[in-house]
């Protein structure tokens, strides 16, 4: 979840789901939404069009009164409808039906970043990108909770006419009309049929049945991607300055597909269908479900069709970190984005009665605590609940916490919700302590009472003090905004991690980008915490999540597409990946990027190729390019059946697998390497000493000038094992004479067996002295 608002939405979803449960008569099968994939070329000649065929197919298995929810024609061919399991089975048996898949529910995953990324003002990279001109116009389509169009982030001042290629619409609805759009916000649509079929009618007292954003998440993500520059932006004075999106001169189109009860795949596909047809050049989806087979993953299916038509799709990696194998959106044709920190923080200090001081974070802006220390108590000692340490609603005893600072542990409920529980019980302030799951990562919140979030070590020390003296005291001081924090970036503890559970040979995430304490535009409907009790209204909010890192990359992709309109989506992603950095360049902290969860070095399973560096990405020298046929070959290597491939890739000329072709996932021209070695058992059950060789092939395309590139390899994190792998690259030099020229190479990775379950990491780099084209390598022994 990207922020506390999302936690609120998910909590409400449970209540909505319970209220919307369909009453089913005895003996009657329950109806659910299914997405039906049709083979468009198989339409019988007696039908005038595909819509007529889809309707006839539905009526053949279901009552005539059962209407389609959506008909799709861009990102897939087919329709969605409410069906019983029996009807779904009957429909799947019809000629021309490729698959009938049950709908899935997805969850939302949420300025200084232009300066941090080197693309603000007169920064080194600022002059590399086009500033205006319809020839370079790119529309970023954002599929989320909608938009708050009155935000100054959607000002169209200085923008030319809407590009002639644009086919989108500004759809009216409750609290939203067509005049809400302009030359910046060029389109706004909403999709709720799938949601309403599953959850019941939209509750218009709580959210608008229109593109209007009553949650805040969608406004935050779309303004991060392509918001106009807004001077004097801040949240209660925190992070004051000019707020702007990554591509401030790009256009924005919003597709509201997420509601209080979640984001349903039938609606998401309808939004993607429209976005691609409207003319979006980049799609940004800060949402996801669990990792699933590509032929059953609606976002992956929609993204494949978008890629076929030249549209780059960026998705958030998820917020299930720091556990391993927790990623969402792992299809290789999706750009998967994890989260890192900025060099900006919002310090708050906890001073204890024993004279010790601890630093945390806070965005509290109200009346401060008195300068004299107050009593402090651990929530577990102020509650009769077994989970009293978590400050859940109704668990605190008012007579024990009244007038005191309460120490609460993170977990289960939203961070700001815990503060509200403390306030309602009469507490004066809160110290929010991380647990092992969050480590030292600090995420700031606009609390409703004086509060500070602290790391696990600090929280443990504070709780130890509280337990060790008869009358413990403390005070909290909120100190404002601090910039220049080092080290930065650090991989966010919540950011989901690899390995990729669907295809381990594809390393994910692809990159990380800023996703912690990000300032961007906000809705006027709810306060910065999203809580009903929060009556504050703000134009900008500071929230965290891979939901926030994804639109950074979406906006950067729009910049690259405007600078290089001839580049494919894969070329854009390659440029972002091969120019990313995975280590600190200088100073006492030089070395691999750190992991906030552990404080130790992070790995390619955490950050992929590294942290994006847009000033370098605009001139990468070489790219690893890919097209639809390459991805079909990848699916062939996965032994997909013709029907499974047809459900993902609908263009008939690109679908067939050759019978005698030896397809291999290791041939996919990806800008990273995931190398899996098998550890066979030797005598006595130990690992065999036999060497294992794994071969990968890649092709580089020259997008720069003439030059000779030489290759180098190096072990990084987990170096001892990585140094035990022999890496042979052939050839070791590639000479390019013209733009567009392609050169291939082979890499042979040879290793003697290591203990099963271990991993190590390296890096393969091509350089001509000016450009550095780097690829991460992840080794695993299974």
Report what the structure shows.
Residues 33-109 form the Inhibitor I9 domain. One of its GO terms (biological process) is system development. The chain is an alpha/beta fold and 782 residues long. The chain folds into four domains: 29-105, Peptidase S8 propeptide/proteinase inhibitor I9 (Alpha-Beta Plaits), CATH 3.30.70.80; 107-343 and 489-615, Rossmann fold (3-Layer(aba) Sandwich); 347-480, Glucose Oxidase, domain 1; 672-781, Immunoglobulin-like. It has 18 helices and 41 strands. Helix 9 links the parallel strand 20 and strand 21. Helix 6 runs parallel beside helix 12 and helix 7 runs parallel beside helix 8 (298-308). Residues 1-25 and 681-688 have low confidence and may be disordered.
Mean pLDDT: 89
Poorly predicted regions: 1-25, 681-688
What is the name of the CATH superfamily of the largest domain? Peptidase S8/S53 domain
What structural class should be given to the helix and strand makeup? alpha/beta
The amount of helix comes to 10-25%
DSSP E strands, number:
41
What sort of overall outline do the alpha carbons produce when their principal axes are compared? globular
Tell me which CATH architecture of the largest domain applies here.
Answer: 3-Layer(aba) Sandwich
Rg over alpha carbons: 27 Å
Number of helix segments?
A: 18
Q: Report the β-strand fraction as a percent range.
A: 25-35%
Major sheet details = 7 strands, parallel
CATH fold call of the largest domain: Rossmann fold
Q: Please indicate the count of domains.
A: 4
Which CATH top level class of the largest domain fits? Alpha Beta
Widest β-sheet, arrangement of strands:
7-10-6-13-15-16-27
N-C termini distance: 32 Å
